[in-house]
Amino acid sequence: MYIIQNALKNLVRNKGRNSLVGIITLFLILATTVALIINSTTKEIITDYKTRFGSKISFSVDFDKLMSENVGNQNGTMSVPSAPKITSEQYVQFADSKYLQSYQMDMLARIGIPQLQPVGGRMGGATFFGEDGEQSALSYDVKLLAYSDTDNLPDFSEGLRKIIDGTMFAGKNECIISSEFADLNGLSVGDTFSVTEVIGRQEITLKISGIYADATQATPDTIEGVIFLDGSSANRRNEILTVIDTLEQNFEMNNLAVNAEYELKSPDCLDSFTAEVREKGLPDVYIVTTDVESYNKIVSPVEGLSKISLLFMAVVLAIGGVILLLVTTMAIRERKYEIGVLRAMGMKKSKAAIMLMAEMVTITAICLLAGLGVGNALAQPVTDALIAGQIKTVGELSGGGQYLQNVQVHLTPEASFQIGSIALLLALLSSAAGVIFIAKYEPMKILSERN
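Above: the chain's sequence. Below: its structure in token form.
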């Protein structure tokens, strides 16, 4: 206890010297705080944008590779070959991958409803014939749409559609229908009705879990003189919505139209995912890519800001650390007689070293509290000034573009731990000269040099 008390008294006795040490330490902690706040926040932003822009998968045709496989026609002239299609079954198989974080998929089945009436009547939609000819003709009356993500259904999330009776579909063979379709056919929640997939002729029974009001445009705009082939199926009031299991488990997959979006767990999984989908039948002419270009374009100023902050911190700590060590070394030389007297009175080397370290830890702790507060306040304006400079520099080099301009920084737990660790290292560095001095010289030698 005496050692700590004496250390605190020494801080007051040597105000001038300790104030100088404190100012240098405060400056170092302040610079470190601003730099690490900027760095930790920009790292979070970069990670977030890397996940969002660097993980979404897209399949595109390699036109050069497609042309290289063309052998020409009978006349010896080159023709543009058709790219092979990714089948609906393959889209479903691709979704079953350990490398994916998530996927969104929707399916479309072309449906006939011979026992019901579509809204607007059967307006000459495509007709499909069976083996026995006209008697088994089945018109494409309505669309049966299935979704993997029921929380973000198109039109519902935009407020254009809303459940007004019953609930959203949840299980296989449950569906929701428009209020116009329900009124026309006298259907209500809990009723069942049969539909037939027009290509494969599979018939299933659907149960109505809900009825929705529809504010979308009922039919697409038509062009004068153009024959409209979709008929009643193009009327959006005839859309029946269900969960994806209804189509996947009841119908032939290649009779369905499938759209899918995939997101990787990490951009680093791209090569592994590509190899996997190749094994599942993805044609060689397709390239598997992520939206890395958009990511790089948006966050390049932020990445530059992160590098600048770290470089600034490293330079300040290197120069400031040397200055701090020189100042504390000079201070110890001024106090060597004091240390010699204490040692001559019986104070052990270890206790004398602890006393000096306690002084520096106290100074550093005060500077740490002040540095965190002031640094947290300065970090945002410094960030705004630096990001503006980075945007200008990157824009001049790249010819302009859309960049992430508004970077809101904050003190993260990670940055707080790093700042505290650096402050502790500064305290140990500051007291290093005194500890070495105490360990090197005996009290009688110190006193004799004083005489």
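Residues 223-229 have pLDDT under 50 and may be disordered.
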